[in-house]
Amino acid sequence: MIKLINDLWFKRRDIVSDGYDESMDYISKIIPLKIHEIPTGTKCWTWIVPEKWSVNEAYIEDLNDNRILDLKDHPLHVISYSLPVDKVVTKEELMKHLHTNPKRPGAIPFEFKYYERDWGFCIQHSRLKEFAKDKYRVFIDSKFEKGTLKVGDYTIKGETDETIVIMAHLCHPAMVNDDLSGVAVLADIAKEERERERERERERETLYL
User: Fold this and answer.
1) Hey, what CATH topology would domain 52-145 get?
2) CA-based angle 29:13:58, to the nearest 5?
3) CA angle at residue 58 from 52 to 63, to 5 degrees?
4) Contact 98, 130 (CB under 8 A)
C-alpha cells in the first residue's frame, strides 16, 4: 500500500487525464480491473463527464524573470482544468486568480474548474507576501480535448447473495488522504480476497480429487 501511494500520489490524477489513466493502468497490474469508459459530455445524474485536460507548464514570474510559483514544484499550483493563459497582469488582477487557504496557511489548496472557463493558481497563504510587485507574467500551457472517464471495478464472487461494495476515488492529484489512501486500502483488500478465493478453489479441487 505504501509503494502504491509513493508511486502515484504526485501524479496529475485529474478526473479525465493521462495521469489518471496511467494510475489506473498501475492499479490494474495489482488487481485485474474491468475498465469502463464514459465519454466526455455524458450526463451522469447531476453532472456531466468533463473534457480531457492536460497541462505541460505553468508559472508566475515578475517582469525581471524571477519565478515565484512553478507547476514543476507541485501539481496543485495550477487549478485543475485551467484555461491556457500567457499575459502580463496587474497584482490586483492576479490576486483574483490566486487561491489560498487562510485557515491552513502552509498548505496548497486543491481547486478545480471542470465547468468554468477560467484560469488560476493555488499557493500557500503564507507566501502571499512574496507578491510585492505591481505586475506579473502568468503562463499556463494547458489543453482541452474529448476523452473518457475511466472507472475500474473488480468483482469477487462470495458465498452468499449479499453484495458488498467498497469504493474509492482516484481523481484528486497530489493528495493522499483524499483519497489515494482509500484506493491503496481497496487494492490491498481486493488482492487479499482474490487470494482467498483462489485458496477456496484449490480446496474444492482437492475435495473432488
Assistant:
1) Glucose Oxidase; domain 1 (3.50.30)
2) 140
3) 150
4) no
| Total residues belonging to the chain | 209
Rounded distance between C-alpha atoms, residue 191 and residue 32, angstroms: 9
Q: What pTM was computed for the model? A: 0.89
Cβ pair 74, 80 in contact under 8 A:
no
DSSP per-residue letters across 145-202: E--EEEEEE-----SSS-----------TT-STTTHHHHHHHHHHHHHHHHHHHHHHH
Helix (H, G, I), strand (E, B) or coil at 107: coil
Answer yes or no: are the C-beta atoms of 30 and 162 closer than 8 Å: no
Segment 100-148, tens digit of pLDDT: 999 999 999 999 999 999 999 999 999 999 999 999 999 999 999 999 9
Cis peptide bond prior to 18, omega within 30° of 0: no
Smallest CA-to-CA distance from 173 within 22, 2, 1 is with 22
The CA distance from 26 to 98, in Å, is 33
Q: 25 CB contacts (<8 Å, ≥6 apart)?
A: none
* Beta pairing class for 52-62 and 67-70: antiparallel
Q: In the numeric block, which cell numbers belong to residue 111?
A: 481547486
Enumerate the domain spans of the chain. Answer: 2-40+152-208, 52-145
Dist CA 87 CA 61 (whole Å): 11
**Which residues, in sequence order, are CB contacts of 183 under 8 Å at separation 6+?**
4, 8, 27, 168, 169, 170
